[in-house]
Structure to design on (265 residues):
DNA sequence: CTCAGTGTTCAGTG
DNA sequence: TCACTGAACACTGA
């Protein structure tokens, strides 16, 4: 379920498990898709004996800062996550890589559907896919003027823009829908035809939704009850929000989009 | 059995 | 160049 808040939760898990610690051993599986053409041996060699100085995130991309390059990069795809544990028998299913600290802490990346990727970076911020990411709405939200300018110069449906990682890094399908619902803007509205007030509302809702989701470590049960999130799944004809508003579904920006016509103009 | 799906990328069209 | 669509990737769970 990885959009920015889920990936940020993963970043914290990785830091808690490995920050300041040295990787004593790396277990790998054979998976050419997730490993993205890196031979398991090469990956293990890059990590073994290294100290994890920090775990960084931009948008949905994660990477470890080690005491020596190359640094490993992780993308969760549709189904990835990090799991921390101590005992080998707690190793989760669908694990793709497991890193052990010298103290015996273990961190595994899990990737059930194999759309995730593991990479090696020499300089992540200057290399793809991190280099072409837009601003991270948690760490580096644009000020109102810059935000409005960057929205205005595009000519796409606002939903499609929010999903564009080179615009706002880390926004995925449910966050885009949630932001537009709270900002009262219909997803198919074109970016060059939005009013200043609407763009301002989108900006503040984006900030608020992401902050809130990160605060609760992306635990959906703790998202506010008023959020569209809790009612948007399943494309049910009868779907309504907590306020009783009817939810409609359509494909916009290539993704299933949920919105409330009576609220979003 | 069918199909949708919290993501990304690429080919093809206009 | 830009905007947009559809397909591909992969595989589970409803």
């Amino acid at each position: 379920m990885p959009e920015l808040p889920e990936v940020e939760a993963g970043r914290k898990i990785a830091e808690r498990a490995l920050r300041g610690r040295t990787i004593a051993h790396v277990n790998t599986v054979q998976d050419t898709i997730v490993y993205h053409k890196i031979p398991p041996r090469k990956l293990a060699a890059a990590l073994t004996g290294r100290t994890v100085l920090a775990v960084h995130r931009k948008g949905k991309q994660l990477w470890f800062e080690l005491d020596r390059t190359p640094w490993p990069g992780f993308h969760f795809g549709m189904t990835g996550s990090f799991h921390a544990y101590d005992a080998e028998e707690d190793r989760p299913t669908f694990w793709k890589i497991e890193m052990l600290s010298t103290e015996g802490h273990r961190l595994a990346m899990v990737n059930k559907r194999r759309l995730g990727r593991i990479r090696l970076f020499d300089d992540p911020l200057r290399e793809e896919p991190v280099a072409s990411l837009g601003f991270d709405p948690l760490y580096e939200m644009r000020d109102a003027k810059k935000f409005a300018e960057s929205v205005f110069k595009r000519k796409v449906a606002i939903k499609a823009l929010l999903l564009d990682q080179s615009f706002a890094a880390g926004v995925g399908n449910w966050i885009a829908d949630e932001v537009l619902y709270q900002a009262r803007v219909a997803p198919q509205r074109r970016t060059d035809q939005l009013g200043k007030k609407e763009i301002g509302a989108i900006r503040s809702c984006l900030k608020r939704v992401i902050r809130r989701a990160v605060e609760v470590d992306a635990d959906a049960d703790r998202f506010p009850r008023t959020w569209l999130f809790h009612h948007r799944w399943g494309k049910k004809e009868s779907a309504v929000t907590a306020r009783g508003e009817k939810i409609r579904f359509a494909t916009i920006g290539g993704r299933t989009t949920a919105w409330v016509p009576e609220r979003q103009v």
Summary: The mean pLDDT of chain A is 95. The first strand of chain A starts at residue 23 and ends at 28. Chain A has six helices and ten strands.
